Input
Amino acid sequence: MKYALVTGASRGLGKATAIRLAKDGFSVIINYQSNKEAAEDTLRQIEENGGQGELLPFDVSSAEAIEKALESWSAAHPDDYISVLVNNAGIRQDNLMIFMQEDQWNRVIDTTLNGFFYITRRLLKDMMTHRSGRIINMASLSGLKGMPGQTNYSAAKAALIGATKALAQEVAARKVTVNAVAPGFISTDMTKELNEAELKKLVPLGRFGKPEEVAALVSFLASDDAAYITGQVISINGGLYT
Ligand code: NAP
Output
């Protein structure tokens, strides 16, 4: 059995990705922070489709919590390792820079960038030892283009893109690939307060994306067919920005 860990898999893009990777044959480790009911719903949908999964709650911004959770997972699976990691958990704390509080800055950086660092560093060794691994980082259009009101979020996602490119070169010789996905506007809880009717006019394809469309891209990057793709940032944004 191959194992895939998806962070933030209780809702939105992470949920759709977990369900998709289970359909692809992975046993999926469903991470979330606090929304147990939603995470259980992800697991229920996986099992209804005949797939396999398990819940593993932890706060991705806490090195200690990550270590504890992954240690307990390894103890319960002594002969297995996690071969696919989707660093998806993320938050928005939008504000104009002149009004931005330290807490808003730090929480976004801690979740997106430090979360990536702690979890990836922890799982990398096993992937390199087994000479097989896929790391897929959920970046954003905001990290490529920069979005006003999101200096914290744009900075975190741009840094994640830089880390993706650097790490890809470090681990390529061990057949571990590292890529980033950069979605535009996708319909999830994170975007539900936005004015979709207005914003979709900016999108050449005329609509927000669906979580399942992002999940399909992650599924491809996690597959054997994507073995020669690494260090890339793949946009999925309806043509909004290239
Ligand atoms: P969402 O619907 O708000 O879901 C966020 C998920 O992340 C939830 O499962 C949440 O868990 C989890 N999470 C948040 N903080 C966490 C933490 N500290 N530790 C563990 N899990 C945590 O968001 P989404 O729209 O699916 O976004 C997913 C990713 O895609 C994010 O990285 C986001 O930046 C990126 N993205 C989204 C869009 C978009 O248009 N939606 C566009 C570009 C990029 P709980 O349920 O327990 O709170």
